[in-house]
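TA notes. Do not distribute before section.
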Amino acid sequence: MAICGTYYRTSIRRVRRNFRDDVNRELAKQRIETDTESLEWINSFLVKFWPIFQPVLAETIINSVDQVLSTSTPAFLDSLRMKTFTLGSKPPRMEHVKTYPKADDDIVLMDWKFSFTPNDHADMTSRQIKNKVNPKVVLEIRIGKAMISKGLDVIVEDMAFSGLMRVKIKLQIPFPHVEKVEICFLERPTIDYVCKPLGGDTLGFDINFVPGLESFILEQIHANIGPIMYAPNVFPIEVAKMLSGSAVDQAIGVMAITLHGAQGLKNPDKFAGTPDPYTVVSFNNGAALAQTKIVKESANPKWNETKYVIVTSFNDVLTLQVFDYNEYRKDKELGAASFPLERVHELTEYENEQLEVMTNGKARGVISADIRFFPVLEGRNLPDGKKEPPPESNTGIARFTVEQAKDLDGTKSLIGQLSPYGTSFLAFHSVMS
């Protein structure tokens, strides 16, 4: 009787617990389907994280935009550059989120309501208001040439933005377990800003005060963004493809950059003396991929060095940053030259290319370089659906070098990655170096 009584009480207790959990779970699902959830925990995190992340984001945007502007400046302008970019000290706010639990098993579907209203002080402390930094973008347009040029600032400030965005996450079993993310606006977002094309901060006039101009500009913005990410159009982010494999797996070729030297390098600081220049090679002003030697006290250095870099996209921009070496202080950037990789898609060899070194919209010298692109060799698709082996190297150097390299430690796996792609000798040599 004691054993039966204990078994009965234990069973009843488990049944009650399971029943209570089932009821709570079903009620929670019903609330999720009809109600929205607060996101105050994310907002509390953003208040702490935004002052750390925002300066890094702003610097990245300035560097990226400057590269584009330097290569697309109209002929009638001396230069075009982004002087200032900041999103302010107040972070975006997540208002609420709605989840759809009845979506497919491999789909996460959510609607996010967010707002970016930096001029709203209602939820800010007195200390935050005192130290507040407003969002501001300053684009400098320099007209004229050389000594008679004049810089004009186009200012965009007091931006505000709010909208309802749908986020769809497609899951998968292999790593990184997220195949892609699709985002779109379910309705037109609200956009507000102040634009002063002339006069700067002191005498600038907001063009939105011109009758009919504000609605016209907003319609143009919506007309350009709408086909990209206004429902039913979605903006896809292929997460799995972005994270799959290394640069070698995604390589479309190798670029050989022969840096002969530079002429007429000028130090922005007139009292700094003759520079000790060297050049750093990168893509999109990002991480350094190669560096030349340092030439002491020369405004016309001769490097005569060839650097090899793996190319994964023709949409990148080759950046050649010239620095002045300092033994005890941080090296100072003299300027940067850029070369769009889309040019090598059409013509693979450029000899004695003269690339202008620019800083703050002003010329600081010229870099002389040879640029050659060696595409990855691939076999043709046969009629039976198979793929023929990659074509043989026309020099024989590639086969000889790869066979010899098999005796080197740590290179067998690398060769295994390169061989199926039929990469040329220069591709292998660049990766090894």
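Switch to the second chain here.
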Amino acid sequence: MAIKLYVGGLPYSVNNQELSDYFSNEGKVSSAMVIMDKMTGRSKGFGFVEFENDEEGRNAIKNLDGKDFGGRKLVVNEARPQEDRRPSNGGNRNFGGNNRNRY
């Protein structure tokens, strides 16, 4: 069974390969991805690492959470499923239409 970890506090210069290499000391990494901002193309300072083995992933949490990586303190924990992102206005997408005459 694979375990996926959230990794926060990444240096903004880190790429996928460097993230994978850093975590590979803890076990067999099946994937590592730094999340990038779509508008700027820059790192958002967090990413995800997936281990093939749950035990290795849990050891990575114990061993790397709070460690310094490139001058920043890592936050490492088990990733949670992505939350449903609904529009903040409750789904009512009125973009400037004429609503003045509604009572």
